[in-house]
Hints:
Elements: E1 6-10, E2 17-21, E3 24-28, E4 32-37, E5 40-45, H1 46-58, E6 65-67, E7 72-76, E8 80-85, H2 90-94, E9 99-104, H3 105-119, H4 145-148, H5 205-210, E10 222-224, E11 227-237, E12 241-243, E13 248-252, E14 256-263, E15 269-276, E16 280-283, E17 287-304, H6 309-314
Antiparallel strand pairs: 1-2, 2-3, 3-4, 4-5, 6-7, 6-12, 7-8, 8-9, 10-11, 11-17, 12-17, 13-16, 13-17, 14-15, 14-17
Helix pairs in contact: 1-3
Bound molecules: P-hydroxybenzoic acid and fe (iii) ion.
Fe (iii) ion binds next to loops.
Amino acid sequence: MATKIATRETDERFGYQSFSIGEFTFSRDEYFAYIHWPTGQHVMSVDAFLRALQRDVAWDFFYGIVNFDNVLGTMNHYGKVDLFAGRFNEAYRKAELDHQETFVTEQIRPLFKSMLSDWTNEGFDPFASPAETGTAFGSKHGNNDEAVTRRRVTAERMVAVPGDEALRTDDNGHPINRQFADVAQDEPELHPAPGYENEVCGFNLFAYLSRSQVTWNPSVVAVCKESLYCPTTEEYILPIMHGNDRVEWFIQLSDEITWDVEDRETGAKRAKVVMRAGDVAAMPADIRHQGYSPKRSMLLVWENASGDIPEMIAQGKIPTVPVTF
Ligand code: PHB
Ligand code: FE
């Protein structure tokens, strides 16, 4: 594939850079992000844009589709990425205003990182809940590279197994979040047989999650072959509409999340799922979804990370749902 030009230039009015890749251009002012492509243009509130961009960058384009809203988004081909406008929006498709270009990941990743860094002002943390961060708006002032480049925690086996991410405590800078003040902090009692002290391990997942300062950012706490346990703490709105390329399971560990589930291709509404503590749901591989969490809650996302799944689903070799009733 021919490499497409990526450029940036400073916009004198507000101090931000404008970016272009292929035939897409991105610019921002005090309140909005503007996206142009040959057949159309789009505007988003810049706080929502940055929250979505932050996830796309931090998750390296994630599984399947990251819709920033119902127009703009990326689709991951694991090595290449489609950047699209209106592709999964029936009205844009019918009006032939949709546009899509494919980039090698090495090319679009640095552009997205630069845009996230340049457009994030001092005091705004796109990973934080709106109640726990400053504003994204205004003309350019400072940056928050410390926040936007933070890495998500990834265990090799399971948190607490020797050699893996240490448990978090007040002492190493991870205080209990204001909304989880009631979460018990005691650790499980372990009684391994002599000789197995390094192999039988346990930790208090609720206590661990109560110390997460980010929202809508699954961390990997246990890995068993392709099975990833990715719990996360949620407050306000999932900043992206995720278009799945595989089935994923949700286990609501605390409180409540409402999910809007839409057809992956057209955006037509398919379901509203209200999940309360203890509820389990499987999200099909042909939908997109966005969650609403009125109070900070804990959610376990269970993923099968196998690289073969998207192809098997696309070819109809495996179903888009885990169970047929
Ligand atoms: C998802 O799209 O499945 C997803 C992403 C981030 C979360 C939770 C769920 O925090
Ligand atoms: Fe998802």
